[in-house]
Amino acid sequence: MMTLLQPAREAGETIRTAAREHLLLALLDIPRLLRHPIWRPADPEEGAGLGVLLVPGFGFGDRSMTLASAWLKARGYRPAGSRIGFNVGCTTELVDRIDARLEQHAEETGGRVVIIGQSRGGWLARLAAIRRPDLVRGLVMLGSPVLDPLGAHPKVVRVARVLARLSTLGIPGLMDLDCFTGPCYDENVKALAAPLPPEVPALAVYSREDAIAPWQLCLDPYAECVEIRSTHTGMGLDPDFYVAAAPRLARWARDEAREQTAEHAGELSQAS
C-alpha cells in the first residue's frame, strides 16, 4: 500500500494539473469562441432533433462538454451526456455503459445518434460505434489516439497505470491492469483497428500542437481527418472544431430526417 502512495499522489496531481489547464484554456478560449460567427446559429432547426451523445476525455466528466452541448442545442440537436463519470474506469465497462446510454438516447430521439468524443472519449465512442452501428448516425473524435491508445504522453499513461494498480487494492470505478494487457486489452485494440462500418461516417479532428495525443495517432484511416490548431484539452473550445463539425453534423441530420420520413411513409403504406 505504501509503495503506491507516492504514485497515487502523483496521479492525483497530474489529473488536477490537467483540470487547471482546462480551466485556464477555458478562460482564454471561451471568449474567442463566443465571438466567432460559428457560435451564432444560422438555423435553429438545422439539427432536426438529431440525438448527439457527448463522451468526455480521460479524467473529465460530462460538464467538460457543456459548451458543445449548448452549441448543439442552439441548432436543434438533442445532446446528452454519456454519464460515465470521470472516464477513469475499465475500458470494456465504460463501452458497455456508453452502449446502454446510446440505446436509451436513440429511443428518446426516435432515431440513430451521433457520438462526439474527446481524447479517450473518442476512441471509446469508436468502440461503441463498432459494436452498435445500427444506433450510430455518425462519429466525431477530437484528439483521439485510435491507432495506439497507449501512445499518449507518458505522464498520462503513467497515471492510468497507477489507477489500474490502485484498482487491485479494491478501489472501485477504476481501470484495471487488464486494460493494459491480457484479453481485455487485446480485444479492444483489435476492435479499434477494425474498419468502421460503411453506414457510420466519421470525422477525426487532430492538431500538431497537441502535447498529449501525438497527432499521427489520431489519423483514423476510416474517418475524414481534419487538422485544426489547438491544444489537446482545448479542442472542444476551439472555433475551428465547430467550423469543421457544423456542415458534417448538418448533413447527418438531413440524412437521418430523410430516412425517418421514408420509414414512416413505408409504415403508413403497409398500414393502409
Automatic annotation (TrEMBL):
One of its GO terms (molecular function) is hydrolase activity. Keywords: Hydrolase. InterPro entries: AB_hydrolase_1, AB_hydrolase_fold. It holds the Pfam family Abhydrolase_6. Residues 52-266 form the AB hydrolase-1 domain. Gene3D superfamilies: alpha/beta hydrolase. SUPFAM superfamilies: alpha/beta-Hydrolases (SSF53474). This is Alpha/beta hydrolase family protein. The lineage of its organism: Bacteria, Bacillati, Actinomycetota, Actinomycetes, Pseudonocardiales.
